[in-house]
């Protein structure tokens, strides 16, 4: 019998009860209580106040007024929509691309294989701010590499101002995000594919499985768990994306690339309405929690 | 067929990086040219030189970023390790709830914490300071470190710790003398991850640091873009390249253990 | 005084009961073996004695003090784990010295102890190496050495030989016994291998599914098993069983079964008469069965006819597995006797060699 983990079900030691806390966990708890716990509670408080940092009036309690304002605020809803599009859209495409890359490079072995894999990972190693500025440069209407490429290959006739057209801005930002995020899925999927037991692949080969069958019927089921967990991780990370969007468009043009993060930031640090910003933040937090719980439940069920 | 696809994938992945580096070697004029060139006509290091000796305190930016990220990594690992050990091995009643809470903290939208943290740091007079920034970075660094280190600790066979208990050692000593030496690679890669996340952070430096000289690279890039670099794409790309290099080095250093750490977490079902 | 008593020790993990009502007395300097199949609770019991697990009920006494609340470090024990549990980042020397350093002994004293123990186990040349540079057998010795050097009152060994190959295992058994005799400590040894148990233990504790079935010397367990489990678990090859009915009449009791004739010895008849048992398992040790030709069979006290399922050639003899309608028996047959599979054969035995076990409870009828 191996006892890899302490068993929490072990209560009652001849009468003495287990302690509630452990000294070792205290420093972390204290730090997190101060830098996370306290701000969360304070945010809840702030959300019920009319608090303008620059205003002449002191903060005053307004109950749920901020929340009502929020529901009537069209920009809030647009930000929510943008966030959903940005997050789920980017994650979905990155996941597919990453999976495709992993399947493509599955057979590569040895130094060459490692080299190719390392190269494919590079986009993830680029700082988010740099990704933003780099793509911003490439998206320039005049002198941008992307327009140059599309013009010379004849795909378009006149240069497009990618980041200045409302309809195009969000997709353009998403492309940059996808570029930077794909290697993460590539890495996870590669590891997951490598973990598929050899015997399964070999039996499939003996049974003369075709290439497509091999991918969809044999390999994919093994990857389900990794797919779900990695996409949850990235969805949460994407919800938090600030640098990539801010440095590229600052939420513009208009509000076409404003996500909830950007919106909260602007409300808090451009308008200095801390109360309203906190309300938006709280709603967002609840949405995220609901999503995460639902997701984890779906995960646990399998 | 497969080779072609892989070639495309490689091109897709590397082209932008290539573009960044190449542009950094172009003059301001050439970089802004209406007809972009694949290779600089006169490759020049002037962009880099002006970063070093120019009007912008670029060296300060770099140093600030390096110091705060490094300090955050160390602090996070130091505080997280005992907590990870306790969550992994100790028996106390709040063990499971605390574990989940720390996981949940990881999922928090950081922006939600921004306003209260700003006010907190304002009152503690830690705005515009290294310590304040480190405090901010810890909000995401610490939960992450706890979970990563916990998985490394769980990989240590428990018999070794039991043997140390029988040998009469108290828990703190077992952690320091027996467990920690065995997870050093894990601690290093965790620290590097925290370093990388802190390096990438824009929203905290932007909010908490008000003096330009004390800024970190990401925030500095954004702030100076409107001024100095507005049309100087060559200079911008040079600054970007320099901002990228440390992160890339750190990334490739931990890349292999990243597979193990992330994959085992992802494969095991978080 | 390293006398150990367990009184009513029980252990559950949530709903699952790992140990039930374990009571055991171990004498000072005894070599006691806890043996049983996987999941029998033997390792749990060992860990409770060590103090690595808490009891859910009952008490553990070392001598005249109850050690339920005494921490591992204060129980004066040493343990050898199944996977050795050596400190990978320390040399063999440091592995052995680690515990001693805790006791504030002078470096000279520590050095003396370590080297003396290393000499005892012939691992002196390995002192500067790391565990990963050692073979399985060498690691095992180091684990032993680490335990011995602490000079404990109690030695606990958790299946220390199960990771070694067969040949090394036999060799190490002798080493462990030699060590036990050299140091004056009580030793508790856990194994799933009943042969190991029989060869090494002064007394053996047979466990199954969290309960202690029987405690006794190897001879006790072999000759007078308390129930069917112990009878089938101890002994190589395993005892075979035939299901029988009991017919009681005015003339006494009789065993009835389809393919056999079994006469009860007077002592057994008396034992059966005292009970209300209706169905029993009859067990016969393989060495008590003789493969007999038909003629001699008719006069035997016990006669079983069946079909040979399998013949295993062991070397000096054969194990013949015979199947009947109501059970199987195994007989140890001299090599010279020709036996073929799928032939019908007759086995004979003496009435006094029968072991009777109640079919319901498994308990022996004596």
Give a brief description.
The complex is a heterotrimer of chains A (302), B (270) and C (366). With 302 residues, chain A is an all-alpha fold.
Give a written overview of the molecule:
The complex is a heterotrimer of chains A (302), B (270) and C (366). With 302 residues, chain A is an all-alpha fold. Chain A has 12 helices and 2 strands. The N terminus of chain A is likely disordered. Chain B has 13 helices and no strands. In chain B, helix 3 crosses helix 13, helix 4 packs across helix 10 and helix 7 packs antiparallel against helix 10. In chain C, helix 2 crosses helix 3. The two termini of chain C are 37 Å apart. Chain C has a 6-stranded mixed sheet, sandwiched between helices. Chain C has 366 residues and is α+β, with helices and mostly antiparallel strands. The chains are: A mainly alpha (302), B mainly alpha (270), C alpha+beta (366). The interface between A and B is large, with 96 and 97 residues.
CATH class of the largest domain in chain C: Alpha Beta
Terminal Cα span of chain C: 37 Å
Classify the secondary structure makeup of chain C into a structural class.
alpha+beta
The neighbouring-strand order within the major sheet of chain A is 1-2
Gyration radius over CA of chain C: 25 Å
Number of domains of chain A: 1
Reading the helices and strands of chain C in chain order gives EEEHEEEHHHEHEHEEHHEEEHEEHEEEEE
Distance between the termini of chain A: 27 Å
Number of structural units classed as domains of chain C: 2
* Cα-atom radius of gyration of chain A: 25 Å
Instruction: Describe the main β-sheet of chain C briefly.
Output: 6 strands, mixed
Rounded mean pLDDT score of chain C:
89
Please identify which CATH superfamily of chain A we are dealing with. Answer: MetI-like
Query: Per the principal axes of the C-alpha atoms, what is the gross shape of chain C?
Result: elongated
| Secondary structure tally: strands of chain C | 20
Number of helices of chain C: 10
Indicate the mean pLDDT of chain A: 83
Which protein chains make the most extensive interface, counting residues with beta carbons within 8 Å of the other chain's beta carbons?
A-B, 96 and 97 residues
């Amino acid at each position: 019998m191996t006892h890899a983990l302490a068993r929490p079900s072990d209560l009652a030691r001849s009468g003495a009860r287990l302690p509630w806390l452990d000294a070792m966990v205290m420093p972390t708890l204290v730090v997190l209580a101060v830098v996370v716990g306290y701000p969360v509670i304070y945010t809840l408080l702030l959300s019920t106040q009319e608090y303008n940092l620059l205003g002449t009036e002191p903060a005053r309690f307004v109950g749920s007024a901020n929340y009502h304002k929020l529901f009537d605020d069209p920009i809030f809803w647009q930000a929510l929509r943008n966030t959903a599009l940005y997050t789920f859209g980017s994650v979905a495409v990155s996941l597919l691309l990453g999976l495709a890359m992993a399947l493509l490079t599955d057979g590569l072995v040895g130094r060459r294989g490692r080299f190719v894999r390392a190269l494919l990972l590079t986009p993830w190693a680029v700082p988010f701010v740099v990704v933003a500025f780099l793509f911003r440069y490439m998206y320039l209407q005049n002198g941008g590499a992307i327009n140059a490429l599309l013009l010379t290959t004849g795909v378009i006739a006149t240069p497009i101002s990618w980041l200045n057209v409302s309809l195009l801005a969000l997709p353009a930002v998403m492309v940059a995000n996808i570029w930077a995020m794909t290697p993460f899925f590539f890495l996870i999927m590669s590891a997951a594919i490598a973990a598929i037991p050899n015997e399964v692949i070999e039996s499939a080969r003996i049974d003369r499985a075709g290439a497509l069958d091999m991918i969809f019927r044999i390999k994919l089921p093994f990857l389900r768990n990794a797919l779900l967990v990695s996409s949850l991780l990235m969805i949460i990370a994407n919800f938090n994306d600030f640098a990539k969007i801010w440095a590229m468009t600052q939420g513009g043009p208009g509000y076409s690339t404003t996500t909830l993060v950007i919106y909260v930031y602007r409300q808090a640090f451009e308008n200095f309405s801390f109360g309203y910003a906190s309300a938006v933040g709280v709603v967002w937090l609840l949405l995220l929690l609901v999503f995460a719980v639902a997701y984890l439940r779906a995960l646990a069920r399998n | 067929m497969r080779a072609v696809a892989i070639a495309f994938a490689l091109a897709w992945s590397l082209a932008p990086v290539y573009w960044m580096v190449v542009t950094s070697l172009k003059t301001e004029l050439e970089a802004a040219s209406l007809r972009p060139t694949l290779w600089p006509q006169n490759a020049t290091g002037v962009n880099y030189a002006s970063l070093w000796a120019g009007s912008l305190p670029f060296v300060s930016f770099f140093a600030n970023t390096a110091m705060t990220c490094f300090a955050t990594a160390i602090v996070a690992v130091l505080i997280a390790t005992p907590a990870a050990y306790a969550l992994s091995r100790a028996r106390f009643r709040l063990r499971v709830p605390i574990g989940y809470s720390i996981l949940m903290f990881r999922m928090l939208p950081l922006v939600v914490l921004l306003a209260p943290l700003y006010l907190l740091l304002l009152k503690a007079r830690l705005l515009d300071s290294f310590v304040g920034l480190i405090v901010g970075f810890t909000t995401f660094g610490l939960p992450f470190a706890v979970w990563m280190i916990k998985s490394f600790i769980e990989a240590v066979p428990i018999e070794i710790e039991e043997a140390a208990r029988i040998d009469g050692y108290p828990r703190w000593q077992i952690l320091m003398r027996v467990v920690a030496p065995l997870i050093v690679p894990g601690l290093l890669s965790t620290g590097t991850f925290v370093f990388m996340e802190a390096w990438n952070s824009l929203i905290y430096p932007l909010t908490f640091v008000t003096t330009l000289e004390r800024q970190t690279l990401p925030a500095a890039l954004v702030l100076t873009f409107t001024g100095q670099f507005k049309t100087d794409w060559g200079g911008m790309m040079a600054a970007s390249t320099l901002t990228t290099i440390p992160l890339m080095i750190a990334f490739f250093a931990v890349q292999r253990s990243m597979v193990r750490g992330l994959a085992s977490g992802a494969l095991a079902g978080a | 005084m390293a006398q150990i008593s367990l009184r009513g020790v029980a252990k559950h993990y949530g709903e699952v009961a790992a140990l039930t009502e374990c009571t055991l007395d171990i004498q000072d300097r005894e070599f006691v073996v806890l043996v049983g199949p996987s999941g029998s609770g033997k390792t749990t019991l060992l860990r409770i004695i060590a103090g690595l697990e808490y009891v859910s009920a009952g008490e553990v006494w070392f001598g005249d003090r109850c050690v339920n609340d005494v921490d591992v470090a204060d129980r004066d024990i040493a343990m050898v784990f199944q996977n050795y549990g050596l400190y990978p980042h320390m040399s063999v020397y440091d592995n052995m010295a680690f515990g001693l350093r805790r006791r504030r002994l002078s470096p000279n004293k520590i050095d003396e102890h370590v080297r003396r123990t290393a000499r005892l186990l012939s691992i002196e040349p390995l002192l500067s190496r790391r565990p990963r540079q050692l073979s399985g057998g060498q690691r095992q010795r180091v684990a032993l050495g680490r335990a011995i050097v602490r000079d404990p009152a109690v030695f606990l060994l958790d299946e220390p030989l199960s990771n070694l190959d067969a040949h090394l295992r036999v060799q190490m058994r002798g080493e462990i016994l030699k060590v036990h005799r050299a140091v004056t400590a009580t030793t508790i040894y856990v194994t799933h291998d009943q042969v190991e148990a029989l060869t090494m233990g002064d007394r053996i504790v047979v466990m199954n599914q969290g309960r202690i079935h029987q405690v006794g010397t190897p001879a006790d367990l072999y000759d007078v098993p308390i129930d069917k489990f112990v009878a089938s678990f101890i002994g190589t090859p395993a005892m075979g069983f035939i299901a029988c009915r009991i017919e009681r009449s005015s003339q006494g009791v009789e065993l009835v079964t389809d393919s056999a004739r079994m006469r009860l010895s007077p002592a057994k008849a008396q034992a059966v008469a005292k009970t209300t048992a209706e169905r029993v398992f009859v067990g016969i040790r393989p060495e008590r069965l003789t493969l007999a030709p038909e003629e001699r069979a008719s006069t035997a006290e016990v006669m079983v006819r069946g079909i040979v399922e399998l013949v295993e050639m062991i070397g000096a003899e054969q194990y013949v597995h015979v199947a009947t309608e109501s059970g199987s028996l195994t007989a140890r047959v001299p090599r010279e006797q020709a036996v073929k599979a799928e032939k019908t054969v007759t086995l004979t035995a003496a009435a006094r060699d029968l072991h009777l076990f109640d079919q319901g409870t498994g308990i022996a009828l004596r």
